[in-house]
Predict the structure.
Amino acid sequence: MLRTVKPRNARSKRAMDARQPKEVEDPRTCVFVKGTHPGELVTNAMKELMALKRPDAIAFNKKNDIHPFDASSDSQASLEFWSNKNDASLFVVGQSTKKRPNGLTFVRMFDGRVLDMIEVVVDKFISMTEFKTPKSTPGNKPLLHFASDLFETHPRFSQLKSMLISFFNGETIESICLPGIEHVISISLSPTPPTLTTTTSTDLPTTQTTPEDLTSLPKIHIRSYTIKLKASGTRIPKVELTPMGPFFDFSLRRHTPPDPELLKQSLKRPKLKKQDVEKGLGKKRKNMEVDEMGNLRGRVHVAKQDLSRLQTRKMKGLKAHFDDEDAMEEDEGEEDEMSEEKKRRVS
């Protein structure tokens, strides 16, 4: 168990406050750890994944004797120590042995503890350098595309989808313009066997204790493309995809489902603030909003007004009796003109 560290000055206190839980979390930092025998294929694959994850990536250059799925070892304690030391919530462990070659283990943390793990096999890998095409800006938020129904129905692929979203998801943003989307990562599956399409998710095993036939599960294909928007003559632009790399072909291996209590805590949302409620994020208050400066403003609706009864500035020339006297004088003038015309006709 880690000891509690008290801040000695304001600078260390700010650093500790930055690591505290937040309503809108910072981008997840991922630590790439090499095992005792990572192998060339796994090492290159980790480098390409780290290139997609930058700048929120940390690489350990030295090899470490770590086995995340071995309960008898101190591997999970080491992961929790590294997580608190580097303020990281994701790990990618590369290990290649004779029994399990070319393995990549994705580990997700919550509150300094291991939440869940999933191991994949690197079946095929094409580096980014083999594609002589433009690359995306490091740190740019990608567009994720999952092209299979198994990501919603099968528990193993649902866990993989959640893990990849946590891995590639960057900073939380409220809106984005079209030119800001520079690349897309497509995750698809091989042709699905008929047994998986007819089986519901409730009939499938969700724990590691039940033996599972991994050969029947389809492979995962991860492809990266750059996006180019061209004029189409309409409001919607024409989209062209250019292979950027890297390309991965993965197969599922071992996994550890999340602990129910720890998962419940990780999905818990904080109570909304008063300003957020007034903005409409929670129980909305009618005709009330908060502007950009944080001031509460309300809108009042009144009935239709009769502008003829509107009180204006009092002026002597606008009084009603002046208007009546002018009308009487005009009527007397018209009567005098008519009498003069009659006299002329008679004469």
In short: The chain is about 30% helix and 25% strand. The two ends are 128 Å apart (CA to CA). The longest strand covers residues 113-126. Confidence is low (pLDDT under 50) at residues 200-210.
